[in-house]
Amino acid sequence: MDKYKHRLATLRKEKGWITENLYMYKGFWHQSGRRFSIEAVMAIQDTFKAHPTDIYLATMPKSGTTWLKALVFALVKRNQYKNSSISTHPLLVTNPHICLPSIEAEIFRNTPTYVDGVSPRLFATHIPYTSLPQSIIKSGCRLVYLCRNPKDVLVSMFHFTNKLRDKSLGLMTFEEAFKLFSKGIMNNGPYWDHVKVYHKISLEHPKNVLFLTYEDMTIDTVNIVKRLAKFLGYPFTKEEEANGAVQEIVKLCGFKNLSEVNKHGNVREGMPNDVFFREGKVGDWKNYLTNEMSRILDEITEEKFHGLDISFRT
Ligand code: PAP
After folding, report:
1. Which of 62, 76, 101, 167 has a CA positioned 20 to 30 A from the CA of residue 271?
2. Which segment of the chain is annotated as a signal peptide (predicted)?
3. Span from the CA of 10 to the centroid of ligand 1 (angstroms)
């Protein structure tokens, strides 16, 4: 990580959420000195090599990453765990972030899991499309992008931040979170730019990039899971559908089940399993945003997404 430290001095800096500062790199804000950081992005660009059979899940933080990781892991590995006793399924004993790692965390391990990974290798990332290593872009692999209503992302990130924030920074107020978010300042943000680039790529490469929303996944879970399975090359057979295999995966990966499994323990030191499970609902923002805050975010969203077919069901 230290190898990239000297580059930070030349970058624009802003107030951070979980960490003291965020740095602007290739049009996006990144924290420093830990996983999911500017150093991770640089190290990945330098060393990571994608395989054409890889599957990537890309999200802005707090857009449903944990849920999507669970669903994709369960879908792709369903035959592997078909005959094991149901209680030994990894998702019943382990956090989805362990089952399906993020490259920004793996890159700093002594032996990253992807070194000997069986095909297809499954990875997640919060890295903006424009900063992904060329090998991911050019390898022809499949990528699922999941986005969520910005107001719920803001609220979710606000809570996550106050659970994990450096103690020296004190608690963040919601007003502070709102101000930073609406200026685009958040790790991997601006939110709108992150979404827009992946949306554009999904239109240009529909066979390689699938664009989903958390809201559709919540409202229409079974159909979205079937669509996801087909896109990834693991469609459900008629027999599986008749036997309730889709519903089984939906239940296994549902908020109720995963939040129960992850009540205790840690993903790693300082990162409790339960920090990824809060409400799991669409529209919790109504409990936090004033009318004025809501109006401002609506205006920004309308302006940024103008002419694009990006909307969030309620
Ligand atoms: P990450 O990007 O840091 O990995 P991510 O999983 O995207 O976090 O965000 C957590 C959000 O997903 C939480 O939303 P909330 O704060 O509004 O409640 C969390 O509750 C929600 N979440 C986690 N697992 C599920 C699930 N199985 N179904 C629906 N929502 C979920």
Report:
1. 76
2. none
3. 34
